[in-house]
Amino acid sequence: MTTENPPPGAAAPARPQPSADPGAPLADPGAAFAELLPETRRELAHRVAACQAEGRAPALVATVVRAGAPVWNGGAGELPAGVGPERVRFRIGSITKTLTAVLVLRLRDEGLLDLDQPVARWLPAPHAGSATVAQLLSHSAGLAAEARGPWWERTPGALRPELADVFGPEPDLHPAGRRFHYSNPGYALLGALVERLRGEPWFAVLRREVLEPLGMADTSYASEEPAVRGWAVHPHADLRQPEPAVDTGRMAPAGQLWSTTRDLGRFAAFLIDGDEAVLAPESLAEMRAPAAPPEPSDWPTVYGLGLRLAREEGRTLVGHGGSMPGFLAGLWLDPEQRTGVAALANATSGPGVRALARELLATLRRREPTFPAPWRPADAADAETQRDLLPLTGSWFWGTQGYVLALGARGAVSLRPAGPGGGRGSAFRRVGEAEWVGLDGYFAGERLAVHRDRDGRVGHLDLGTFVFTREPYEPGAPVPGGADPAGWTG
């Protein structure tokens, strides 16, 4: 059975018309295309059906979100009757880790912990006490990949009742901070850290602080109807057997949860745009920044703080996969396009749901790219700031390399290479009357300062000891090493 559920609404909205009032809000050119084209919907449905059939999954479902709202839901295989595929619960495995990471960032934003301090400062950790919270979040704490005892995903958490019980005889495999090594016990530590600082169980905190504010009512600790069963499908025959669905106990923050693609779509929208009630956009951007070097076999994928980052066709995708016995999950986002895809299947192996999620993102980008936000002039307060900074704009030179300085909102600036020669560029946030700090690229964290002549006019820029002048090697400017007194000659 293959099903496809369009979002509510029968007719497409009317195409927006330009306003004759220059003071009125500008029309959004993408509003006329809030619903997907029939050809796009068919391609999405076909890819889901093909993944279910080729991967031999009993059931597979997917949801696509764009600009904060679902635009397509679909599924194939054995699904409960009378309910949309986006409302059926599957186990989501390690996508649970991303939710745990959000809780940890909330604690940091409240000042209750420091990501760069050892976890042992707040938690009597039996192992990895010298590892920082950030290293646990980014799987660079050096811990072993799996928990003590038999396969923890198929055995009850009662076998590991205390935090020390999740660590095997060789828990520390690598020096902390030296390499990326995925660790499930590391996220058990982070869940225990949340419990220690909040004084209540991890899932109770998650439900109150993340799930309820985001409207993720279908996300649960254990299976709740409507749900599918997890299956192991024989690799060489059309036969199957059920997988156990255990309570993983102390390991729950690493992979316990059940959810739906509807809820994961809401989580995807949050990961793209943020929600001040849960986590500020700046903290989400921190989660999406590379935090650990990849293993050679993982290139071009790196890990942030609870999220993976992947480079595909010149763009950066963000997300996480998940697996538990009987289940596979994929959640991937294209922040530039403000799109996300959640895909879930109930098979231990076979269907490539993580790759499917990225394929559906590529389909949406190719067929129906997101419209850019309309350009708008600066508001009154920002306009005054930009007028004051206008003398900084335009052409600058570092040596002979040309750059252009442009203004942004709230006093921000960008300094980018001019022309095809390339070079190092960054965006900068204002931190003083004549000082900015780099946000990205080579100059991230570096200071950009404006120096004025005696008459108060802008003279030169100093960026981490690099001097930028209005002309190449401008005479009289404090260029390190000076300029040749003969000037430019043939």
Automatic annotation (TrEMBL):
<dbReference type="InterPro" id="IPR001466">
    <property type="entry name" value="Beta-lactam-related"/>
</dbReference>
<keyword id="KW-0378">Hydrolase</keyword>
<dbReference type="InterPro" id="IPR012338">
    <property type="entry name" value="Beta-lactam/transpept-like"/>
</dbReference>
<feature type="compositionally biased region" description="Pro residues">
    <location>
        <begin position="1"/>
        <end position="10"/>
    </location>
</feature>
<dbReference type="InterPro" id="IPR056008">
    <property type="entry name" value="DUF7586"/>
</dbReference>
<protein>
    <submittedName>
        <fullName>Class A beta-lactamase-related serine hydrolase</fullName>
    </submittedName>
</protein>
<dbReference type="Pfam" id="PF24491">
    <property type="entry name" value="DUF7586"/>
</dbReference>
<dbReference type="InterPro" id="IPR050491">
    <property type="entry name" value="AmpC-like"/>
</dbReference>
<feature type="domain" description="DUF7586">
    <location>
        <begin position="386"/>
        <end position="470"/>
    </location>
</feature>
<feature type="compositionally biased region" description="Low complexity">
    <location>
        <begin position="11"/>
        <end position="29"/>
    </location>
</feature>
<feature type="domain" description="Beta-lactamase-related">
    <location>
        <begin position="46"/>
        <end position="360"/>
    </location>
</feature>
<dbReference type="Pfam" id="PF00144">
    <property type="entry name" value="Beta-lactamase"/>
</dbReference>
<feature type="region of interest" description="Disordered">
    <location>
        <begin position="1"/>
        <end position="29"/>
    </location>
</feature>
<dbReference type="GO" id="GO:0016787">
    <property type="term" value="F:hydrolase activity"/>
</dbReference>
